[in-house]
Write a structure and sequence with these properties.
CATH superfamily: Cyclin-like
Distance between the termini: 26 Å
Number of strands: 0
CATH architecture: Orthogonal Bundle
Helix content: over 70%
CATH class: Mainly Alpha
CATH topology: Cyclin A, domain 1
Number of domains: 1
């Protein structure tokens, strides 16, 4: 992952007080999404926000979408739409197994 993306993740980790495991998992999800080209042309902040929110929804370290929206200045509706796309992608990949 490039340096710019790593800096964005560090910002999220610091501002939202996320564990390193949560960040690592979000970065792996981010890489997977870029490989499927679904989010290739989206803002890095949007992709990071969606990945962090997705991981927080399935981990013990929950983060509210409102908190993420405040850090990124991205509308909650846009984050929800992105989350739904990611969740659909995860669900589709699980069906292939």
């Amino acid at each position: 992952m490039d340096r710019k993306i790593n800096i964005i993740y560090k910002k999220f980790q610091f501002k939202l007080k996320l564990s390193q495991d949560t960040i690592d998992y979000a970065q792996r999800l981010h890489q997977d999404l870029l490989e499927t080209n679904h989010f290739k042309n989206e803002s890095p902040y949007l992709i990071v926000a969606i990945c962090v929110y997705t991981v927080s929804r399935i981990s013990e370290q929950r983060t509210a979408i409102k908190e993420i929206a405040e850090v990124t200045h991205i509308k909650e509706d846009d984050l929800r739409k992105g989350y739904e796309m990611v969740f659909d992608e995860i669900e589709a990949s699980l069906k292939k197994l």
